[in-house]
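We read letters as residues; the fold follows as tokens. A sample entry reads:
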Amino acid sequence: MSLTIRQLKYFVATAELGQISQAAIQLTISQSAVTTAIRDLEDSLGTPLFLRTANGVVLTNTGRRFLNHAYTILSSVEEAMRVPNLESTLTAKLAIAASYTVLGYFLPHHLMRLHSLYPKLEVQLYELNREAIEEGLIQGRYDLAVLLTSNVSNPDLILEPIVHSVRRLWVGAHHPLLQKASVKFSDVSVEPFVMLTVDEAAQTAMKYWNQTQYQPNVILRTSSVEAVRSMVANGSGVAILSDMVYRPWSLEGKRIETMLLEDVVPPMSVGLAWRKDMEITPAIQAVREYFKHAFMEPRAS
């Protein structure tokens, strides 16, 4: 089996973070995809690159040596991507609308990469809620949007998925639920629940809660992800949020753990949107192609 750039990226992320689960969160892919890529890489090399421990993974001696080579290869690829070509001469302005969560936790890194690939592409960015984004696309104020797609149903818009981020249960580092082999909605329903409201998160949450016979015991509704993080880390409640907004530490420096629920919870889906009769300009096509190539790995559903 031949070595791939994707395997190297997944290997480097795992080596730097020390946990496959954290690498998956950073890469916005499924944990199984990282595990498979590393296993295939080790099979190709014929030697283990990591030692598995109770707290994560650590590099073997071979893994440490290989990490240096991986950095060199990825750096060379990055440099090659900067070589002037026909695409890099694209000169255009693009008005992009984005929702709060997308702008705060997903888009900045990709805007940087787009600027690197298309230095003459001028992006004008607007942060708006979904309704304002939809109206702005229809009226032609924005060329393109990057938003949470689950609540978009306007027939005059075209949606193109980018990534599906798994939703998990967030609990404090010493929460009793961590001792259970599996957790269901029935377990969560008796816990104090912190409900995020930004970007219609509460409405989305109630859609999947209402598919069960249980309801969350909501003690706080807040538009602040950091407030949710602090409440969970301090043991005041639990939450169900996506890997995209997960960070392992609260502002107070307390640990937050995640658990995959046994019951079905839909992922948080992020995608592009544009007006159905919109001309697909070279600038719009460039953004579409960028995300297509950046997220080719199959996602967890």
